[in-house]
## 1
Amino acid sequence: MSLAPLYVRAAVGAVGPRASTLPGTVLHRTVDVDRTHLADYARVCGFRLNDALPPTYPHVLAFALQVELMAGRSFPLPLPGLVHVANTITVHRRIDAAERLEIAVHAERFAGHPKGAQVDLVAAVDVGGERVWDGRSTYLARGARAPGAVAEPPAAPPEVGDGPASAVWRVEADTGRRYAAVSGDVNPIHLHPLSAKAFGFPRAIAHGMWTAARSLAVLEGRLPEALIQAVAFGRPLLLPSTVELRTRATGDAWALDVRSRGGVHLTAAVGHAA
């Protein structure tokens, strides 16, 4: 499931002229869930293994199409250096591992950002023509330009604030490599201190979607089957680190954040899907 060839192609094509608008391409794939892969993903992210897909798992299945779309020269922003700044997923109903998933990915909302340019990669998952899952990933290209006015960055969920931690994790140095093995996201900033330093990080950093998944796993059993999770990614989570998860229940919704001595790495809001 490694996407290394696409990352290499993207790196080679990063130099030179690019399109000034988003391609109208919609990429599709049909997936039968590999239960061994599902078990590996659940183990890395802390979910219990059962027949219901973790809420964040379809993102991994759609991610290959995201990278394929962003690696092409028709995509206006070079893939190397893109930063995942926000993510929203909507689970419309319980998704069983035995169901055949029809996945579609396209790009939209290419706009200026106070720090560069931003774009959304949008994924949809259907089962037999029924929409069961939606995802929106917002990426930032620092220093890039986009046509038109600067758009407002996605609003970040508020921090939970002071109080006792709901969970404390030791995030080991190999977390980036382990998540890369199940997600296909082999961006070098996650894999090794030396490759991360080439991009300006003192050490390798955890994948934002690993942190988002690990946070949801702590709440497993207390969440509705149909849910929406909105996440904003903050300071990079250096590996290794010890982090704290803080949560606050408000009615049938949850606010949460993940922090360490390095600052706040993620804020999120989780509640029932409409």
Note: The two ends are 33 Å apart (CA to CA).
## 2
Amino acid sequence: MNHQPLPLTIGDRPFVWGQRTYLMAVLNVTPDSFSDGGDFNTLETAVTHGKALINAGADILDIGGQSTRPGALEVSLTEELNRVVPVVRSLREDPAFATCPISIDTWRSPVAKAAIEAGADIVNDVTGGTRDPEMFSVVAALGVPFVLMHSRGTPETMQKLTNYRDLIGDITEFFTVQIQKATAAGIAPHQIILDPGIGFAKTSEQNLDLIRNLSQFQKLGYPLLVGPSRKSFIGHLLNQPDPKQRVWGTAAACCAAIATGSTDILRIHDVAEMHDVCRVADAIYRPKT
């Protein structure tokens, strides 16, 4: 890899960028997420699945209580808190799973704060800090890593906002502006992770173009998180309407992302399968020096 961002310790685990691909496992505690809505929206099923994801090889567990699928309706702050905080707390109370880094997938700063206080380690904001003006200052005060994702609009409107002057250039400009705001608020640069937002305000062809050009973001000097898992562009290519049947299409997208030499974290649903895929892809594309 050309870029070498500073290593980052999350919880008590070191993340050394460029050595291997880390896996962020998706745990949606929602009734309406696009591929697993309703599967894990009770405390018991969510905690059980979270532990299974960790056992399968997840490096980070990403817990979300608000669906961000296209067309999803917004839930109340109270509902989002009630969905995610008990899951974070329950996982942290089990000694066997106490050290796996937990990410809270939210754009609301009160949810981020409550989840971190319950034991989460990372804030993953799909709006890149654009929806909640307090998010940057809250994350800075918490002193935790922040995933800054590119998107436009809301889940209800984002698929109408796919006109770009220059896809890669526009996303780079967005990152540059939001990084400046984040660091000005006090977030340490080495704790910022960038996510170009595959599937968020992008057409199927734009998603493919984004994966082909991931290396363009290396010049920014931050670790890169990529989330192709089960997304609709894969379903479009495979004529596969069922997201759960897009595992091998996801595998191809993950390999392509690793092959660009710029992907540090993959956000995925199918941990056991992608763990094996990434081990082989890493051996090919990240030769030991």
Note: The chain is about 40% helix and 15% strand.
## 3
Amino acid sequence: MDLATLIGLVGAAVLVGASVIMGTSPEVFMNPTGLLLVVGGSLFVVLAKFSITQFKFAFKAAARAFKFQLPSIQESIDELVELSKVARREGMIALESREVNSPFLKKGLQMLADGFSADMIKEMMEKERLLTLERNEAGGQVFSALGEVSPAMGMIGTLVGLVQMLSNMGDPSLIGPAMAVALLTTMYGAMIATMFANPIAEKLWVRMNQEAKMQELWIDAVLAIKGDKNPRVLEQMLTIYLPPEHRSAESSEERNAASERT
């Protein structure tokens, strides 16, 4: 689970909730009419911008922002070097039974075991990468749209409340509820955008770029294994994906030997 996303969203909600409780009664901030207008209205407007499939997938993608964690680049490089050694020692068919966490990499290993050509492997994996990128991008767009729409729906609720208040100036008992709708809908819209939609959208964009980069690494590695590259050459080739400050001339074998000595 991605604790940063969970801690950030829950922490912000707790702070806002604490400020509400310490200031006055929480019931003052609960207005079903305002919530219905802002939450329901925002979701329907966003749905109008996208297809039902894209809308449903966006919430599945949001769940991945909490529970899906990519391996580190160094961990993936070490795993790929080991797979390269297995392919050289036991043949490509041995890769079929190897357990890997990524379905994308698993598909590439399956194609190696099935004897696909390098051009076919590259074409199919690139197409899969682009389709995954497109799906993740659609999820980010849905939540970005929700972040834009919800404050606007809050302002619409404010205008509705003001109109109701001004039209009932002769009855003081109706001014309070109308003013509550006018003020609370603005708050609801700002909270949905700032504390929910925009953070998840940004997380999806970040995760999308991370996954695309990792898939490029896996494609390069699978093609190098297909070309029977030496595992040491493969490792040096893949270190380009590491940040410059994390690159080292030390190989995985040397790191393992050093860890065994300690």
Note: Residues 257-262 have pLDDT under 50 and may be disordered.
